[in-house]
Write a structure and sequence with these properties.
heterodimer; A: mainly alpha; 16 helices; B: alpha+beta; 8 helices; about 20% strand; elongated
């Protein structure tokens, strides 16, 4: 074992430099970095598609791309961003790196399965790229039947298989987290002392394990109907197209919480650290994660208010949807209250956290519009929906992720990012994001349907603003890639705990040794105990 | 300014005012919430910025506050829920006196048919001030009929009927969009709805085409041509149930279930007669799957619907199995 042979003073980065020491590593920290590289790769592929969409929509005519090409572009944008970036990004990168460190464990419970998760992700990713090379898919990321199962002439089966395999990567990650959090907490690390980041990952893992198999089987059924003409979803074969939507959203609505909950966990860590205070209402924030995960499974048909479900079904799902609103609101209020009488420093991660608060609040509030059935009838399937879920999934998830990457960058690399450029990128991202997506609320209420290659001329002004915003946003996302890369070599070496943060991950060296802690820590304090822990020693 | 930056779609139906009112209410709620949270976050970040020698005050939390900011938003949300549900309930309850029109969607075209037999493609003319109900189905994939100016939208599914209704309040031409992604020319599956004064609408209906047969007559002709009338007789009980007056009623089935005779049941009985056999009859009807188009089905449905219970037949020998 590499662990046993690690020379004194080495860390997980210096412990082995061969290709095999990376590709066959069982160290959760190295696997996290493998994921970091791969999700970043897919983020930029998805991002290129996003820019193609925005460029096409600069004018009302379909002039840049062919109709079929445009349909493939938005489909691939959605599938890659959802399944290959947003779902894995926080759990597989930061969760993988930090969950064991935060609970005082040497690794995840199943290190080999953790590595297998990454390989499954890579196999799925290669299949997805292969799908692309063969000309892509044009069903929309939602694969609605019978369009996907009978009518589309693109590579639906291959894409479905890619997402099927990717699902197992997600299931294994979730399984690993659940067992690790149950069984491998350090002595004294009780559930009520767990960092909120870990609580959020626990809730996420439950959704991953319970929800993902449903979408995996559903996509397999689409493939069966396509290949074998089994009548499952197509009425011409005796199937039911609404059955597909029920099954698909049974996973894909909770999947939104797979994306946002881990990011919310990051925000709790950032706001506590940069307010030098225990998070306000710790147990309310922790339990609200579980609440969101549980109630999130009961609201799927709010995607289907005009799909042909009964009036009473719509009423029930609308009613239940508001119950998800409450725990989300609780989190936002508690984060804000944490800053009250704190000692706040506006570092780059904190600017991202406050940006998250703003964007997630808008995303959440516009969810109330969509849950109101009579209003949803008008705005569903328009750009209003597009704007809403980008506020939650990009404004929320990506803001939180970037904040987290900056915060733990010195932990991961031992070096600091350049603060000036960090702040600039965070603010550019915030401004660019709002300029891109806020106009889409307005053009959605005007009635512009989503997934339109051409549109009515009166919608143009808002689309021009949106495209302009997208270019600013792209700069805001490209900058960290450049300066973080730069900092790997030239960044200031800042010691083990530059933020003076509490939390077990800061009580070991930066970067941590392969085995995380030289001796197993014993926890005798509450989470975020900034009141009592003034000096954070590196003791373990 | 608003000319170049439009923020408001035309209001051209009885729903539009209420939907927009709820929208404005939600915008106000959102602005208040956003300003509250934003102002608090920025104020705290400034007032409580970290200064040498000043420590954060530890605060554990507050159950009273947690309850306050759970219950008050929840109450506001329930108001939104109730308001949204009330609008929806109205949107889904077509008045009994509605004019029934039919729509058949296919990749990538909308076909409409008026009760008088007038047909249109990608255009729908309607009279102002009348309740219009559209009964819709698709020949292939899922589409969605959307009139932004009327604030109504409904998915159109293959293999079943869905309905949508409205009462247009303003003369003019408005967008008609397909709102459910349906393949290559999805964004070209568009057209317009033309709202006309009732008198003008009558003129338009009669314009130039005096020989046109109504939807019901077309259905009646098909009913005879396809041989339906040999079993479903109009005067005496044949091998199939008599159809006069059955539409809208509850029907007892062979297996003891009750089914409401609606558009979907009539359609299913034509295409898949064995699915729901009326109590007291034999499963002998052949399927007409593949022999009738969606448009022919629509006219057959309209015909069956038009068959009113005739006093002389229904009182003498009511169809077996029919629940009054």
């Amino acid at each position: 074992m590499a662990t046993a042979a690690a020379p004194a003073g080495s860390n997980y980065l210096t412990n082995g430099s061969s290709v095999a020491s990376w590709l066959l590593t069982k160290d959760h920290k190295r696997i996290a970095l493998l994921y970091l590289l791969s999700v970043t790769f897919f983020f930029f592929i998805g991002g290129v598609f996003a820019l193609l969409i925005r460029l096409e929509l600069l004018t009302p005519q379909g002039d840049l791309l062919q109709a079929d090409t445009y349909n493939k572009v938005f489909t691939m944008h959605g599938q890659i961003m959802v399944f290959f970036f947003l779902i894995p990004v926080v759990p597989a990168v930061l969760g993988n790196f930090l969950v064991p460190l935060m609970i005082g464990a040497k690794d995840l419970a199943f290190p080999r399965i953790n590595l297998l998760s990454w390989y499954l992700y890579i196999v799925a990713g290669i299949l997805m790229l292969w799908t692309l090379a063969l000309g892509g898919v044009d069903t929309g990321w939602t694969f609605y039947t019978p369009l996907s199962s009978q009518f589309s002439r693109t590579n639906v089966v291959l894409a479905a298989v890619a997402i099927f395999i990717n699902g197992f990567s997600s299931i294994f990650t979730g399984l690993n987290f659940i067992v690790t959090i149950h069984r491998m907490r350090a002595p004294g690390m009780t559930w009520s002392r767990l960092p909120l980041f870990v609580w959020a990952h626990y809730a996420t893992s439950v959704i991953m394990v319970l929800g993902t198999p449903v979408v995996a089987i559903t996509l397999l059924l689409v493939a069966f109907e396509r290949l074998l003409h089994l009548g499952i979803f197509d009425p011409a074969l005796g199937g039911d197209p609404l059955l597909f939507q029920h099954l698909f959203w049974f996973y894909s609505h909770p999947a939104v919480y797979i994306m946002i909950l881990p990011s919310m966990g990051i925000i709790s860590e950032l706001i506590a650290c940069f307010s030098r205070k225990r998070i306000f209402g710790y147990s309310a924030v922790a339990l609200s994660s579980i609440g969101i995960a549980v109630i999130g499974f009961l609201v799927w048909a709010h995607h289907m208010f005009v799909a042909g479900i009964s009036v009473y079904a719509a009423l029930v799902f609308s009613f239940l949807t508001y119950f998800v609103g409450v725990p989300s609101a609780i989190k936002v209020f508690n984060w804000t209250a944490t800053m009250y009488k704190g000692a706040v420093t506006l570092t780059t991660p904190m600017i991202y956290a406050i940006g998250f608060l703003g964007l997630f609040t808008i995303g959440g509030l516009t969810g109330l519009f969509l849950a109101a059935i009579g209003l949803d009838v008008h705005v569903t399937d328009t750009y209003f929906v597009v704007a809403h879920f980008h506020y939650v999934m990009v404004g929320g998830v990506v803001m939180g992720y970037l904040g987290g990457i900056h915060f733990w960058w010195p932990k991961i690399t031992g070096r600091m990012y350049p603060e000036f450029w960090g702040k600039l990128a965070a603010m550019l991202g915030f401004v660019g994001f709002n300029l891109t997506f806020f106009p889409q609320f307005i053009v959605g209420y005007l009635g512009m349907p989503r997934r339109y290659w051409m549109y009515a001329p009166e919608f143009q002004v808002w689309n021009v603003l949106s495209t302009a915003g997208a270019t600013v946003l792209a700069v805001g996302y490209l900058m960290p890639l450049i300066y973080l890369g730069w900092s790997l070599r030239y960044g200031e070496k800042v010691g083990d705990n530059p933020w003076g943060a509490v939390g077990l991950e800061w009580m070991t060296s930066s970067p941590p040794p392969t085995e995380n802690f030289l001796e197993i820590p014993v926890v005798t304090w509450e989470a975020y105990d900034y009141e009592h822990i003034k000096e954070v020693p590196v003791v373990y | 300014m608003l000319k170049y930056f439009p923020i408001w779609p035309d209001q051209a139906s009885t729903f539009a005012g209420n939907v927009d009112a709820l929208y404005v209410f939600l915008v106000l709620v959102s602005v208040v919430m956003f300003v509250l949270i934003g102002a608090a976050a920025i104020t705290f970040a400034v007032i409580y910025r970290r200064r040498p020698g000043v420590e954060a005050t530890p605060i554990e939390g507050s159950t009273i506050l947690e309850l306050t900011w759970s219950i008050i938003p929840f109450i506001v949300m329930m108001i939104i829920f109730g308001w949204g549900a009330a609008i929806f309930f109205e949107e889904r309850t077509p008045p009994r006196d509605s004019v029934e029109m039919y729509a058949v969607a296919k990749q990538w075209m909308w076909k409409f048919e008026h009760p008088e037999g007038q047909r249109e493609i990608n255009e729908l003319h309607v009279p102002m001030g009348r309740n219009i109900k559209i009964i819709m189905t698709s020949q292939d994939v899922i589409h969605s009929l959307y009139f932004p100016a009327l604030r109504v939208k409904q998915d159109v599914l293959p293999g079943r009927y869905t309905t949508l209704w409205f009462n247009a309040t303003k003369v003019g031409e408005y967008h008609l969009f397909c709102a459910e992604y349906c393949g290559t020319q999805h964004s070209n599956m568009i057209g317009k709805i033309v709202v006309m004064q009732p008198a003008e609408y009558e003129l338009w209906l009669n314009g130039g085409n005096n020989g046109r047969t109504s939807l019901v007559s077309t259905g009646q002709k098909l009913f005879t041509e396809l041989g339906c009338s040999t079993c479903h007789k109009s005067d005496v009980q044949g091998r199939g149930p008599m159809l006069a007056g059955v539409f809208g009623k509850q029907q007892l089935l062979q297996d003891g279930r009750l089914v409401k005779v609606d558009e979907d049941y009539v359609r299913e009985s034509i295409l898949n007669p064995q699915a729901k056999i009326v109590s007291g009859f034999q499963p002998i009807m052949p399927t007409f799957q593949g022999q009738v188009t969606e448009e022919q089905l629509v006219s057959l449905v309209a015909y069956v619907k038009s068959l009113k219970a005739d006093a002389s037949t229904t009182t003498a020998q009511a169809t077996p199995g029919q629940v009054k």
